[in-house]
Amino acid sequence: MVTEPAPTKLTDTPLEPIGPLDTKVVQCLPKMTEGCLVPVYMDIQQAFVPAEIVSIREINGVHEFYIHYVNYNRRLDEWVTVDRMNLKELTPPSSSSSSSNNISHEIPVTSLPRTVQPSTTTTAAAAAASGAAELPLGNTTTFFLSDDADSLNSDLSRAATLPSLTDPLPATATPIAPTIARGNGNAHHSGAHSITKVKNINMIHLGRYFIKPWYFSPYPEEFTASSVVYICEFCLKYCKDVEALKRHRTKCTLFHPPGNEIYRNGTISFFEIDGRKNKSYAHNICLLAKLFLDHKTLYYDTDPFMFYILTEFDAQGFHIVGYFSKDKESSEDYNLSCILTLPPYQKKGYGHFMIEFSYTLSKLEGKIGTPEKPLSDLGLLSYRRYWSEAILQTLLKHKPKDNETDYPSLSINDLSEMTAIKKEDVLAALQNLNIIRYHQGSYVLSIPKDLFDSYQDKRRLRVDAKNLFWTPRVTTKSTNQFQSK
Ligand code: ACO
Ligand code: ZN
C-alpha cells in the first residue's frame, strides 16, 4: 500500500503569529518533549497537519524541533521553530513512545515565544482520502551548479571520448579509505533509534548537482557538520569540502564507475560491480542510496551482492543516474534488492528502465524474479507500472487476429514465464488493471477494447537486449564461489 497521502485541498490559512500564549492555556499544556504530538504548519499543504516531535535542539538560544508529519513519508520531515506550531493542541507522548524518549529534552511551553493562529487542521485522513496522481517529494530541491561550481567541474573534467564497449576498463577505483558503514541497503528498517530518524546530511554535491537528502544515512559523524558533503561522482568517495574533492580528483583517475561496462545503447550504459571485489565503491553507493531510502537499513557485508550502475555519457565522463543491487543468490527469487534513481533524474523513465533491465537479466538466467520486499511507496508505484505494461505488452502480442474471436488460452504461469515476473506479481498487476475475474473455479481475463490503446509503448528508454554483453553467474559446487559462465 502507498503509505503517503496525496496533496489535499489547499486551505488559505494565514500564517500570523498571535503573540504570547494565554496564561490559562499555558498552564494546561504539557511540556514539549520528543514524542509529543502537535499540529504543524506544512508548507506544501498550506495547512496545519498533525506531527510528532522526533528531536529537539537549541541553536543560539532558539529551540528547533525535528518533526514528522503523521501519515506522511519521512522524506517530508523537517526542522521547524515553534512559530509554525499550534501549541494549544499539543498532546503529550503516549506512554509507549515516552518510555523510549525518557532521555529527551523537556521544554516548558511557557519559555517559548509565541505560536500561530490555530486554523483548519488538515487531518492525515482527509489528506489520504483526497487521492492523488503524484506523491509529494518534499524538500528535494535539486539545481545546477553556480558559476563557481561549474568551474570546479571543468577543472575536474578532462576530455573523455566514448571508448569502445570492448575496451578494457580499469577494474577498481583508486584505493580509498574504507567507510564505517557497509552494505547494500537491503535490510528492513528497524526504526529502533530516533537518531536514525533525523536527517543528518544537509546537502550533497554530486557531479553537476546539489541534492538535498531525504533521510538519515550513517556517514561518519564528522561529515554531518559540513554544510555540503562533496562526493566524487565516479568513485563516490565523500569529502568534507570542495577543496578536499579537488585534491581527491587529482588522484582519482576514474571517469566511469569501476567495474565492467555490460550494456551500452547511445549514451546510456550499465556498469556491473561485484560487492566482494570492489568493497569501497559498494559501501559508498550504499551510503549514498540510504540518503533516499527510508525503509532499509545498511548491512555490513556487500559481498553477496552485485551492483548495476546506470550512467549517462557526455564529454566529461559516465555520470551516475541511478543503480540497483541484486543478490548473487536468492532463495526467495529476488532479482533486485535496492533501486534508486538519483533525484535530478527521477520521473524521466530511468526507474522503469532499470526494472526492465533487472528482468532482462532474469530472463537470461532462465529465472523468474521479484523485487525484495518491502517496497517503498515510490518503488511500489514504479513496479506496478512496469508489471502492468509488461503484461499488457505480452497480451497484445497474443491478441486475436482479425478473423479470430477468442484469445488463446493463457495461464498466469504462462504470463509469468513470458515476462519473468513472479506469479504473485502477475496476479497483483492483473488485479490492479482490473481485468481479472474469478469465475467458476478459474481466473478469467476480461480486457476492455480501449485498454491496449492507453498502454501503447511510448517510452524513450527501453532495454535492447542486443546491446547487453553479460553472462549469468554460476556457482561451482567445489568452492561455492560464483564465477562467470
Ligand atoms: N509520483 C507518482 N508516480 C510516480 C512517481 C511520483 N513521484 N515516481 C514514479 N512514479 C510512477 C509512475 O507511474 C511512473 O510511470 P510513468 O513513467 O508512466 O509516469 C513509474 O513510477 C516509473 O517512473 P520512472 O520515471 O521510470 O521512475 P524513477 O526514475 O523516478 O524511479 C524510483 C523510481 C527508483 C522508485 C525512484 O522514485 C527512487 O529512487 N526513489 C527513492 C528510492 C526508492 O524508494 N526506491 C525503491 C525502493 S523499493 C526497492 O528497492 C526494492
Ligand atoms: Zn573519485
From TrEMBL:
It comes from the Eukaryota. The active site is at 372 (proton donor/acceptor). Its main location: nucleus. It is found in: Nucleus. It is an enzyme of class 2 (transferase). It holds the Pfam family zf-MYST. Residues 196-472 form the MYST-type HAT domain. GO terms for cellular component: NuA4 histone acetyltransferase complex; nucleus. Residues 90-120 are annotated as: Disordered. Signal peptide: none annotated. SMART domains: CHROMO. Keywords: Acetylation, Acyltransferase, DNA damage, DNA repair, Metal-binding, Nucleus, Transcription, Transcription regulation, Transferase, Zinc, Zinc-finger. Its EC number is 2.3.1.48. GO terms for molecular function: chromatin binding; histone H4K16 acetyltransferase activity; zinc ion binding. One of its GO terms (biological process) is double-strand break repair via homologous recombination. The keyword Cytoplasm does not apply. Belongs to the MYST (SAS/MOZ) family. This is histone acetyltransferase. It comes from Adineta ricciae. The lineage of its organism: Eukaryota, Metazoa, Spiralia, Gnathifera, Rotifera.
